[in-house]
Amino acid sequence: MIAEGEIKRQVRDFYNSVGWKQIGEGVYQNARYEDLRPVSREYIHGCHLRVARFLPLEGVYLLDAGSGPIQYPEYLEYSKGYRYRVCLDISILALKEARERLGDRGLYVVADIACLPFKWGVFEGIVSLHTVHHLPPGEHKEAFFGLYALLKPGGSCAIVYTWGEHSPLMRILDRPIDWMTRLLKGLNRRLGAGREAVQPLENFKPEAKELIRSPGTFTYKHDYGWIKNTLKPLPGLDIRVWRTVSTKFLRAFIHRKALGSFCLRLLFWLEEMAPRLFGRIGQYPLILFHKSENSSSALERSDK
Ligand SMILES: C[S@@+](CC[C@H](N)C(=O)[O-])C[C@H]1O[C@@H](n2cnc3c(N)ncnc32)[C@H](O)[C@@H]1O
Question: Which of 89, 95, 140 gets mutated to test ligand 1 (max ligand atoms within 8 A of its CB)?
Answer without folding.
Answer: 89
